Amino acid sequence: MDLVIAVAEACELTPDEVAEWVRLRRQLARLEAEGEPAVVAPVDTGLVTPYLLPSGPTSFVGRKAELARAGRILLAGGQSARTVLITGPAGVGKTTLAVRLAQLAVEQFPDGQLFADLRGPQPQSGNSWHVLGVFLRTLGVNSHSVPAALEDRINLYRSLLAQRSVLIVLDNAAAGRDLQGLIVSGPRTATIITSRSVLPGLDGYRVPLRMLSEAEALEMVRCIIGEERVSQEQPSAFQIVNRCARLPLAVWIAAARLAARPDMPLSALARALADEHRKLDELTVGDVAVRASIELTYAALSRPQQEALSYLAQLNTVDVAPWALAALMDVSPADAAKLLEDLVELHLLRVRYTEGASPRYQMHDLVSAFSRDRATQILTPAETERGRLRMLGGALGLACAAGNRINTDFDEVPFAAPPWSFSAQTRDAVLNDPLAWFRDEYGFLKALAEDMLPSAPLPAAGLIVALAPFMQLSGYFDDWLHLHAGALVQAPSGPIGASLRRNLGELSTIVDDYPAAERYYHASIAMLDPADEARLASTSAGLAYLYRLQSKYAEAEEFFGKAINLAGSAGNDNCLIYATTGLGVTLMEQGRLGEAATMFDKSLWRSEATGYLPGQAQAWRCLGQISRLRGDYAAAERRYRNAERISLSLGDQLTATHAACWLGDVLIKQGRAVEGRRVLAECLWIYRAAANRWGEAAALHCLAEAQLLAGRPDLAQRRAQAAVSIWTEIHSPYWLAMAKTTLRRARQRLEQSDSVSD
């Protein structure tokens, strides 16, 4: 009977098939006894004390906190059995920790220890049936008495251990009902389970394992190859453990290879591990390999899960949101999110959450290397390219919609329907908070645009144009210049080329490079179709703003007028508001305060009617200037604070600082000098950090006025002189005249002080 059961189990027959073999064997036995009734041997109650734990590692590194917490659970008394579940990715050291934990607790379980390797996530038909057979025979049950049916085996197993103090270790468990039959409910038993899945349905204390720390990984290498070799090549040792991603199995294999080759320099292995295509092949020693460890999990995945890993492994990015995988695979975001969560449960992906609690998924380096190797077997090059184009199209559609919702004065992206896009309903769900979406996705979108520019220049350049509103709000001026300059190389002409130049004109204006800004704006206007009124309007408004900064008021009025007419005809409310406000500022700087106030009131009314928050902020700031020039400082303060509040709600730090700068000035004029100087000092710091020379000069000018009011003409002179130098450098005549007036007053005060002293 033992031989029959052993052969059946070796052939991995189902429980029903094995039971049929047992029945036939007993039938033969009865025939051999010439009709004598078959005798079923009673269960032997003289149970054996099993010791099935494998030998543990000779050196155990780290995991002190995990050992301590799990040990307390195993040794705690209670009315029910204790279960510890150790989870983590392939190669993270789950089995090593389980065996170590069991060895430390062995004296607390005098009736023995059972151990079974459940052979990982590969579904084994009747797996627990086979394990129960082994456990029962190990406990001393005669083979003839081991029940054929699974439920009978479970009942006998639990009955035998109900009052015994036994520790059970179940290694490499997979999800499923089979596992429950191996867990005993007796109060004196305890079970340690390891799994690459989180086994959400299992009740027990969970111990999730992460990668080793750098110090722990180095300690493992020292234990295996010796302190001397590590000390001699410590930089290479650091490279080895980090190129192994501090995965315990990978670090152990690398150290074992070095131990087997005492002549091998650590630098040689470090160089070999730097090659992503060779890394997994290098992490092999004997019959132990990282590739084989990951393969065990990978082989049990569904086809969609394998496709998801293949797509993700080929992205040049750190992490992704569900919408990106949805586009890659042409599935719904809900299906993509389910795939990602399933891969997290199997520890093939890691998840982190943004400040807005949105999930982002990242692949472990070695899993990524494995999945890239397998990608060619899962996806054809054509499928991969179609997926990348879908993702670019989805990103472009979302970025355009997000840009429109944060209500900037930039144009819509001049690009025909992308190769693939999300439905309006999906865009609404993804863009619940468009500014937060931009913050979360900016790094991913930037990398995607740069990666796709050579192969899909128009949609990639369109994505870069769509990113400009967020880059403006966030002050990412270096990225703005770098991305747009790169896109111009790939898409130099057409509406996209014109929009790229328009945006570069805006950027050059912000950083006070007025000659470059004028060249970009004129080039953009020359490239646009006369019928493209919306884009001509926004470009004309940008050029007019540039002329106004240089006190070229006739040109500024001309182009602001053109922008107002074109924007009204095209129905571009945002540009209409921007141009109306700009015309008002042009009038204000010429001393035509009544006309300017009328323009600002129009802008505020239209901005509030359309919900255009940037327009509201700008109108309030300009109305504050009118009040300031008229000497109504209390009204100016209220208006500046409104402008600052709205800009901060948009995440627009630079525009908020423009309002705060003049707020500081009117606070000082109201006698609140300490508060006002503090505000101005903060503005000066922000302007310098953003390399905004005009703003820096404005803050210095206001501080000079503050020092004059405080009776410190020497400090006022230094501040005013610095403002004069900057406004001379960037050629801003109106404000240069203001600063020169302040400088002259400071010098007069100094001369008067010198006369009194004499």
In summary, what is this structure?
With 758 residues, the chain is mainly alpha-helical. The model is unreliable at 35-45 and 121-126 (pLDDT under 50).
Secondary-structure map:
Layout: H1 2-10, H2 15-32, H3 64-75, E1 82-87, H4 94-104, E2 113-117, H5 127-138, H6 150-161, E3 167-173, E4 190-195, E5 205-208, H7 214-225, H8 227-232, H9 234-243, H10 248-260, H11 266-274, H12 279-282, E6 284-285, E7 288-289, H13 290-298, H14 303-313, H15 322-329, H16 333-345, E8 349-353, E9 359-363, H17 365-378, H18 381-405, H19 424-430, H20 434-452, H21 457-474, H22 477-490, H23 494-510, H24 514-527, H25 533-549, H26 553-570, H27 573-589, H28 593-610, H29 613-629, H30 633-649, H31 653-669, H32 673-689, H33 693-709, H34 713-729, H35 733-757
Parallel strand pairs: 1-4, 1-5, 2-3, 3-4
Antiparallel strand pairs: 6-7, 8-9
